[in-house]
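Tokens for Large-conductance mechanosensitive channel. Go.
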Amino acid sequence: MIKEFRNFIAKGNVMDLAVGIIIGAAFTAIVQSLVNDLINPVIGLILGGIDFTSMYVVLSGDVASGTSLELARESGAAIFAYGAFLTACINFLIIAWVVFLLVKGVNRIKDAAVEKGEPVPAAPKGPTQEELLTDIRELLKTRSA
């Protein structure tokens, strides 16, 4: 089982996936900082300082007027926190827009490289049909022997 696990981990796809996840986590931190530290304050300024995250409706329980969302949740009351949901939706749209712009920029760079005649790395070539059939024939020979 250890040998099988080692072979699984050594495959290129698993390593590519691991690298993708690590880079994705780092990229997520950058995008979240962009949204939370740069874009959201500008949006708040444009909207007159409205902070949607603190908006909620008390469904049941006693919560004093003007209580923060955190304290209202801690009181045990049933809270309908529509502001937090609205903020999450706005953040999603901003993040999706930033990712769209990044992908568009990368595609523009690729297109410029193609126009300049720079070689674009080709996908690795797989075995030909004849090579596959030969391998299958050899496997069948070894199994029947």
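The chain has a mean pLDDT of 82.
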